[in-house]
């Protein structure tokens, strides 16, 4: 049983980083807005569906597919909080809102940092260890 714990600890510590269903984004632009989407491993979010929405509207302003490099480009015709939804058939995706308009460039948003992913991984490990601790307490009481 102790060998299994050691193997689990080594696998967790040295295993390849995995980020299921994570898509990282970068927004840039002046008159036109360009959004670059990548998976967590850095590969482009290529040829996936997207929708662009005007501020406060439910009908898409623009629909299409990302290009080979995972980019979406559009020219906003009004100011406000624009929304972009991009999604793949296997569950990956992103739902963004950001300020944009013809007179102002959107605030550039860089890729999310790795600390966010690290904190989520540590949180998950903490939950798993806590559940095993509670299970161990119940098993010890029953003996």
Alpha-carbon distance between the termini?
18 Å
The counted number of beta strands is 7
The low-confidence parts are none
Portion in helices: 25-40%
Number of domains: 2
Shape: elongated
Computed Rg = 21 Å
Oligomer: single chain
Structural commentary:
The protein is α+β, with helices and mostly antiparallel strands and 143 residues long. It folds into two domains: 23-110, Immunoglobulin-like (Sandwich); 113-143. Helices cover 29% and strands 31% of the residues. The protein is built from two helices and seven strands; from the N terminus they run H-E-E-E-E-E-E-E-H. It has a four-stranded antiparallel beta sheet with strand order 4-3-6-7, with no helix packed on it. The two termini are 18 Å apart.
Jot down its keywords.
143 residues; Immunoglobulin-like; elongated; single chain; alpha+beta; 29% helix
Topology:
Blueprint: H1 2-14, E1 23-29, E2 33-39, E3 49-53, E4 60-65, E5 71-74, E6 80-87, E7 93-100, H2 114-142
Antiparallel strand pairs: 1-2, 2-5, 3-4, 3-6, 6-7
In summary, what is this structure?
This protein has two helices and seven strands, in the order H-E-E-E-E-E-E-E-H. By secondary structure, the protein is α+β, with helices and mostly antiparallel strands. The model has no long low-confidence stretch (mean pLDDT 80).
